[in-house]
UniProtKB/TrEMBL annotation:
The keyword Protease applies. SUPFAM superfamilies: DNA/RNA polymerases, Trypsin-like serine proteases. PANTHER family: NUCLEAR INTRON MATURASE 1, MITOCHONDRIAL-RELATED, RNA-DIRECTED DNA POLYMERASE. Pfam families: RVT_1, Trypsin_2. GO terms for molecular function: metal ion binding; RNA binding; RNA-directed DNA polymerase activity; serine-type endopeptidase activity. It is an enzyme of class 2 (transferase). GO terms for biological process: defense response to virus; proteolysis. This is RNA-directed DNA polymerase. Keywords: Antiviral defense, Hydrolase, Magnesium, Metal-binding, Nucleotidyltransferase, Protease, RNA-directed DNA polymerase, Transferase. Residues 34-260 form the Reverse transcriptase domain.
Amino acid sequence: MPSAARIFGKHFPLTIPPELGDEASLLAHLGLSPKELKKIWWYRERMYAQFSIAKGGGKVRHITAPDKRLKILQSKLAPLLDQLYRVRNPVHGFVPARSVKTNAAAHGRRRFVVNLDLKDFFPTITENRITGLLRSLGVNDRVAEIIARLCCFNSHLPQGAPSSPVLSNMICFRLDSELLRAAKAARSIYTRYADDITFSSYQPPSPLFEGALPAVGRFSPDTLAPSLRETFKSNGFAVNPDKAHYADRNSRRVVTGVKINAGLNVDRRYVRQIRALLHSVEKLGLEDAQQRYADAGGKGVIAEHLRGKISYITHLKGLTDPVVRSLATRFNKNFGARPIKLAPTIEERRDRAVWLVEHSAKGGQQGTAFFLKDIGLVTASHCVEGVSDFTVYHPSKPSNRFDVTVAKRCPHRDLALLGHAIPATDYFELEAAAQPVAVGVAVTAFGYPGFGPGDKMNVRGGSVTSLPIKSGVQMVEVSQELAQGMSGGPIVDAHNEIVGIVHKGGPEEARQLAIAIDVFQTWVAE
């Protein structure tokens, strides 16, 4: 076993927790008597249950779970071991506040992805490796032996024990360091989620391979660069030949099951499966749908199965995503006793309520529109001047455009109400303020000035500076600049209620003006 200084570098030496100082301190912390330790030492294999759980693609994952007593002991050891492990940036598995989502997000929308999998990950991490690692860190020899004995099954780490995650990450510390250096040399990003390893780059990752880049799809690990193969070998691991995969910019790029081609997403088949199960419940009824689900090999209760799948998509895409809201709405109609909560945050509601207006008149123009509760889709009249048919879309998916029409327009007040057939699951609505706004009140303007692909909604804070009347129309003047492209967007107060609709502004305008929301309400009611 290499020295701790070689493994942990400048972060060594570490402070050993007092509970790991000697055998007596460890047993006292665990509440474990020497007699019980001796029993576990010789009969630990009897304290595990082995079973399999289904994975995607008809595959299974083998789990070795400790019994209640051993699980308690391992759970007490895990926090102490955490103190001996310094998390590396590329590691996303078994780390607080990190997940498959953060692992996938780290690769952004990079065009080339190399996926590798460590073969027999947990069985490869032997009891002797655990003992040697702990000793090299300065842990007492006897304490290291006891920890390894309590945390291993059949002389290796079991997948299913509470202590296995941190121990596996500790064993992989040097591997992570060396692969990170290899990634930097190849101008790539490297991450690891347990046994799943990913490299991604904007340019073809030629330095990661010995010869020419492999064809898209599965490839042999033998084609990896010799230095990379040696890194895995010297760290006691082997690459699974069945799970080595290469993807380029023209193919589907997946990181730990998450598509990264255009933002984080799941495979369409995953969504289709959820819709098929929901359709089964809606058409057959819960009892018959449950039976069909069981006959097809499904385990457990169909409602909880659906809840878990929808929750996973929600974790990746957020509550504002139309697909998430559509699936959750259908789920809630069928399983109302335990509905999936759909309440968005203020920021999420604002984001999904404000859209872009675009048409080709006058060489092409863009503006902002928003959904007003009980009214509809609102914008400024000059944003749709000279056109009757145009499109609106949300920047989260510019390709998903909706045709809209001008249902009502008032050039004098610079207001327009738009007719649309946008599904209710695609947007949120904002509410109008119940009381007129006052001078000095803090307000925020939203819109899309100079919008380009990849831009997000522009948020500008300020305050009301005056309440002028122009040509008989009540205005709201604000201190922040209302740039071109924000016209038609909402201005909200501290309660997230609309006080005005952006009229005009920008550096070439003397004043930054909006139409008071009560002017719009009066006009619509006429």
